[in-house]
Amino acid sequence: xxxxxxxxxxxxxxxxxxxxxxxxxxxxxxxxxxxxxxxxxxxxxxxxxxxxxxxxxxxxxxxxxxxxxxxxxxxxxxxxxxxxxxxxxxxxxxxxxxxxxxxxxxxxxxxxxxxxxxxxxxxxxxxxxxxxxxxxxxxxxxxxxxxxxxxxxxxxxxxxxxxxxxxxxxxxxxxxxxxxxxxxxxxxxxxxxxxxxxxxxxxxxxxxxxxxxxxxxxxxxxxxxxxxxxxxxxxxxxxxxxxxxxxxxxxxxxxxxxxxxxxxxxxxxxxxxxxxxxxxxxxxxx
Length: 286
Ligand SMILES: [Zn+2]
Prior knowledge:
alpha/beta
């Protein structure tokens, strides 16, 4: 089976725990991913809200060096680089060119708190996009770095919509109307992403999925987004190594079983779109 995952924190964990990407006890290792016939994995360099200013730039450089070192051995995966947290820019537009030159394809505009670009979903006040944020979004989209709205607060989300027509993504978020967590997307937000032909990656985090069997809940979230027209935008955004995941979904080696459950439920064509084709078609055009 083919697997395209729009978000994981594995490379950040490899850096923080001084582990190898090839062989480790994390949710993703290159060795355990060898069961996949074709595999594209977005690796996010995650900047926690406690890291700001010059420190954010330095931290990014260190994790980037780890990423470059580790993907030298990545024969069985097509790695895509992302940064989770617009604090990486340190409030400087010229850093966007640097991200582009480093090969960053996706920038999650905020983490949970507030940064130079916008307010995250747990910020004390949702101030929307800042004036720097508006400039940054123009520059990002000009360079084809995809804005990612996962973690973004609601006003910030709609400010972004006013600022650009770009088909942005929500790399790792589920549906709010099934489980009202502030990190999940409301129906109106899902509809915006569907209209724009962006992407929504299903998150495996048990707190976002809600009570119940994780695979059954994941199917419910998928069904909900499909019912809102998401056939071409739905994909996987596991959040591997970034959150607490129930045993049945925990690990890249569990994806074959997940695929067969989805296949039984949605049929092969739609399952292939969700597991690979949608995200692949989107990213090929960017
Ligand atoms: Zn995240």
